[in-house]
Amino acid sequence: AIDFGIEEALRKLGLNQINEGTSTGSDNFGSGETISSHSPVDGALIGKVKTTTPEDYLRVMESATHAFKEWRLVPAPQRGEMVRQFGEKLRELKEPLGKLVSYEMGKSYQEGLGEVQEMIDICDFAVGLSRQLHGLTMHSERPGHRMYEQYHPLGVVGIISAFNFPVAVWAWNTALAWVCGDVCIWKPSEKTPMCGVACQNIIAEVLKENNLPEGISCLINGDYKVGELMTNDKRIPLVSATGSIRMGKIVAQAVAARLGKSLLELGGNNAIIVTPDADIKMTVIGAVFGAVGTAGQRCTSTRRLIIHESIYDQVKDAITDAYKQLRIGNPLDENNHVGPLIDTDAVRMYEAALEEAVNEGGTILVEGGVLKGEGYESGCYVKPAIVEAQNSFTIVQEETFAPILYLLKYNGPVENAIELQNGVVQGLSSAIMTNSLREAERFLSSSGSDCGIANVNIGTSGAEIGGAFGGEKETGGGRESGSDAWKIYMRRQTNTINYTTELPLAQGIKFDL
Ligand code: NAD
């Protein structure tokens, strides 16, 4: 077997065979049961992580609450300086962390490095933001009065993340939350606990070097039961949760029941519309990367191609041809395009989805199947498949987290394609391939795509951190990352100051004593 340098990466990230999964800064403990993390790449045991018990959680919350009292008093640009140093540490550790992401989650090494780059980018963004947490000033209707709004730190932010972006989603939240003056408690996915411990080790060092309160960054580990400790906890004003729609519905209700805020980043069912004016070569690259990248396990993965009937056969042939070039195997080997699914449960869901698509009347264009034999011992490698289908199929309406691409045909004007693309419960990412200005603008108009992300002449996956990221409808409505997404991590206050000796009331109301 080729040595991909995993041992060295684990050592550089301070990971052991058995790791404490609960941490308040650099104080690591954990008395719950142990989760074993096996790599989907080769099935090997990467390490074990001890989970968080309700008693451990109390200690974490105490530390976080204490840290918040201090952290909220640190001027925002100085909080930004801490985040800048965190970004520097990530630059130093980009390769080992990218490798761990690839090995524990199964995405390609290039995508693992890309994920760490996103963490670095959001740190840079947050550093700039730390001097720009602006509120507005307004003109008061009353003489001698001044009115303005300001943003204050919110408190302890709970972060629940999915397995498919095991490090970046945490950074998207924390980098902003920290400059906003919040402290964070993170529960990573129970499928990628080692990534969580690695990130916590990195930030703990930064906090220690700066003599900052430990609880600014806390880690808890375990399954949904550990997540529920946060969703039901009144001391957490904001829960940011990334994962399936099923999870989002439960989390949203638990948080709403105590009138907390939730930021939800849930599943997608993303489509590319291919119009008669599309550049076919660009379409093929965008669609294939979108459908098979991260083995179809991105929330923005391309699941549906909605192709005009006049070019349907041409696009179909070009895409099926391109699939013949795909090399499936160890994602750390840069010659491969497609790595494994996260686990054998995911493989079963992929197989069931293909079966259901056929039962509903779909036609297989590129055969799927589970790979066996040398290099595929983990049982997690599957062939990317293409199915000719109808938008109305139950299975097409769902998000299957695997490399299955559905081809759908439309006829007539682009409005018909937009109707199909919007005709699902999810609303995350969407794209149109066209050189027609009219079609592109129609797609982006108020009667166009109903998704949080709408692209022209690029695919559905691969967003930049500068824009707000998130989706509508059952994708949950939350926005993370760039633009003004920071506002959800702060509480807004409107202030009116009277510098006269009179007390005039608003709306001209008279009240004389
Ligand atoms: P999942 O819903 O199974 O788990 C996500 C996280 O939620 C895990 O940490 C899990 O332990 C936790 N969780 C589950 N039930 C919970 C509950 N009742 N209370 C508290 N926490 C709970 O999702 P997954 O399989 O890890 O990830 C895949 C899903 O995530 C896909 O649907 C994908 O589209 C979505 N996703 C969305 C985005 C986005 O930004 N919109 C990004 C990445 C992934």
TrEMBL record:
Family, per entry: Belongs to the aldehyde dehydrogenase family.
Active-site residues, record numbering mapped to chain: 265
EC primary class: oxidoreductase
One Gene Ontology MF term: aldehyde dehydrogenase (NAD+) activity
Keywords from the UniProt entry: NAD, Oxidoreductase
A Pfam cross-reference name: Aldedh
Protein name per UniProt: aldehyde dehydrogenase (NAD(+))
InterPro entries for the chain: Ald_DH/histidinol_DH, Ald_DH_C, Ald_DH_CS_GLU, Ald_DH_N, Aldehyde_DH_dom, ALDH7A1-like
Ranges where the Aldehyde dehydrogenase domain occurs: 32-494
Keyword Protease: no
Keyword Oxidoreductase: yes
PROSITE patterns: ALDEHYDE_DEHYDR_GLU (PS00687)
Subunit description: Homotetramer.
EC number annotated for this UniProt entry: 1.2.1.3
